[in-house]
Automatic annotation (TrEMBL):
Highest taxon listed in the record's lineage: Bacteria
Protein name per Swiss-Prot or TrEMBL: Ornithine cyclodeaminase
InterPro entries referenced in this protein's UniProt entry, alphabetically: NAD(P)-bd_dom_sf, ODC_Mu_crystall, ODC_N
Phylogenetic lineage: Bacteria, Pseudomonadati, Pseudomonadota, Alphaproteobacteria, Hyphomicrobiales
Database matches in Pfam families: OCD_Mu_crystall
Family membership: Belongs to the ornithine cyclodeaminase/mu-crystallin family.
Swiss-Prot/TrEMBL keywords: NAD
Family matches, as PANTHER family: KETIMINE REDUCTASE MU-CRYSTALLIN (PTHR13812)
Gene3D superfamilies listed in its UniProt record: NAD(P)-binding Rossmann-like Domain, ornithine cyclodeaminase, domain 1
């Protein structure tokens, strides 16, 4: 497929296109390349527009818009989080995103982001761990084995050298699903009967549960020296996974503090509790891990710049792969002021 020539035509990456793109590139290669794109944008963090996501909360879940711009491109993601959906055979999280040209405001890409969000979340988690986990970390516990678990496992394998996986979920069938899906991946997978068992011997602990409530997935006695915690689940007011005492013992790293203090684990702490922004570690402005006994915590909530990076990465793949459809999305009359004339002309050619 050739490059897009008409401004009214917007490339659309469907779920089918996204899946084919992932397999064309290779899952682990996709995660590595996506992480590199995210790191590029984190290293120029200061130039981006930044604001907490715009959230509409209900008793059933949340619907959010996540916008940002680097001055040349503008991107946003629409995403929901509805934990009860799983009981109805639906996804807990779904998403789509748009990338636009700041110069003229025209969309340049419309893409599914349910699969892409899982990939970018995992890539960001593993990227953070490259800077925060001990270099000799090879065993990871994953507590919560739903839709995100396999992506996290493969990202940590590809970027951090994790070789052993310890799984726990209150629904054992979720852990069994995860083990089946990771068969042949090169990961040594162990199913555990409790969170406590899962974290035994783990260098990295990933929590990725979905219930919309305050919970204690990890207690203080479960976290030994030198562990890196990747707190992925939660991400809304009143939803946490870690006991407050863990936060007191950890050096905490975040994406965007104004958002994380509302939605992340640190909502349990005073408003001035010290945190370090991840971009500062990547650019050398702040220390990440300083010794082997330090407990590091990535209080991940997901930020719009990561979605911007993901959309930018996917768009760069379109010309070489042709994995998109041409979507007639924008009215583009020959005479910009004659929009009604365009409508009239459509009648004469029998389009109604």
């Amino acid at each position: 497929m050739t490059a897009i020539a008409n401004l009214n035509i917007v490339p659309f990456v469907s779920v089918d296109h996204m899946m084919k793109l992932v397999w064309r590139v290779g899952v682990e290669s996709f995660l590595i390349e996506l992480a590199a794109t995210i790191e590029e944008d984190f290293r120029r963090w200061e130039i981006f527009d930044k604001s907490p996501r715009i959230a509409s909360h209900s008793s059933d879940g949340v619907i959010e818009l996540m916008p940002t711009s680097d001055g040349t491109l503008y991107g946003f993601k629409y995403v929901n989080g509805h934990p009860k959906n799983m009981r109805q055979g639906r996804q807990t999280v779904t998403a789509f995103g748009v990338l636009s040209d700041v110069g003229n405001g025209y969309p340049m890409l419309l893409s599914e982001m349910t699969i892409l969000t899982a990939l970018r979340t995992a890539a960001t988690s593993a990227l953070a761990a490259k800077y925060l986990a001990r270099p000799d970390s090879h065993t990871m516990a994953v507590i919560g084995n739903g839709a995100q678990a396999e992506f996290q496992a493969l990202a940590f394998k590809a970027l951090c050298g994790v070789t052993h996986l310890r799984l726990y979920d209150i629904d054992r069938s979720a852990s069994e699903k995860c083990r089946r899906n990771l068969a042949g991946s090169g990961l040594d997978v162990t199913l555990c009967t409790s969170s406590q068992e899962a974290v035994e011997g783990a260098d990295i602990i990933t929590t990725v549960t979905a219930d919309k409530q305050c919970a204690t997935i990890l207690t203080d006695n479960m976290v030994g020296p030198g562990v890196h915690i990747n707190a992925v689940g939660g991400d809304c007011p009143g939803k946490t996974e870690l006991h407050r005492d863990i936060l007191s013992r950890s050096d905490i790293f975040v994406e965007y503090p104004p958002q994380t203090r509302i939605e992340g684990e640190i909502q349990q702490m005073p408003a001035d509790h010290p945190v370090t922004e991840l971009w500062e570690v990547m650019t050398g402005r702040a220390l990440g891990r300083s010794d082997s006994r330090q407990i590091t915590l990535f209080d991940s909530v997901g930020f719009a710049i990561e979605d911007f990076s993901a959309l930018r990465y996917v768009r760069a793949k379109l010309t070489e792969t042709g994995l998109y459809a041409e979507l007639d999305l924008l009215a583009d009359p020959d005479e910009p002021r004659d929009l009604y004339g365009m409508l009239l002309r459509s009648k004469t050619v029998g389009s109604v």
